Amino acid sequence: QVQLVESGGGLVQPGGSLRLSCAASGSIFRFNVMGWYRQAPGKERELVAHIISGGSTNYADSVKGRFTISRDSAKNTVYLQMNSLKPEDTAVYYCNIRFLQNDYWGQGTQVTVSS
């Protein structure tokens, strides 16, 4: 019913940048929250950032000042610009959209920060 397709992950050196994209399709309520979560090996999935349909944003303390979330609501697409990447940012990044008390997830994209 709702599909999320992510792109943009990969391998980058410490200090580098990556941009993730996620396009949602299907029956999507116009008031929603889109976000990015990540899960590192052996750790729980954690919120990275989210943005509501009105544009307000929220970030994990660990990424504030380095990551920027944005969205194109007309295209139901959310972006995550990641700068000054650190090895501890290595994880599988998942796109999420939430509306009417339902959560939908993308398949995940691997981000590896290593020299």
Describe this structure in words.
With 115 residues, this protein is mainly β. The protein has no helices and eleven strands. The protein has strands at residues 2-7, 10-12, 18-26, 33-39, 46-52, 57-59, 67-72, 77-82, 91-99, 102-105, 109-113. Strands 2, 4, 5, 6, 9, 10 and 11 form a seven-stranded mixed β-sheet that branches. The termini are far apart.
Name a few traits of the molecule.
single chain; 115 residues; mainly beta; 7-stranded mixed sheet; 4-stranded antiparallel sheet; 0% helix
Present the secondary structure layout.
Blueprint (H helix, E strand, L loop, with lengths): L1 E6 L2 E3 L5 E9 L6 E7 L6 E7 L4 E3 L7 E6 L4 E6 L8 E9 L2 E4 L3 E5 L2
Parallel strand pairs: 2-11
Antiparallel strand pairs: 1-3, 3-8, 4-5, 4-9, 5-6, 7-8, 9-10, 9-11
Mean pLDDT across the residues is: 96
Strand content: over 45%
Number of helices: 0
| Gyration radius from CA atoms, angstroms | 13 Å
**How many beta-strand runs?**
11
User: Major sheet, described briefly?
Assistant: 7 strands, mixed
Low-confidence stretches: none
H-E order: EEEEEEEEEEE
Distance between the termini: 40 Å
Shape: globular
> Helix/strand-derived class?
mainly beta
Instruction: Please give the share of residues in helix.
Output: under 10%
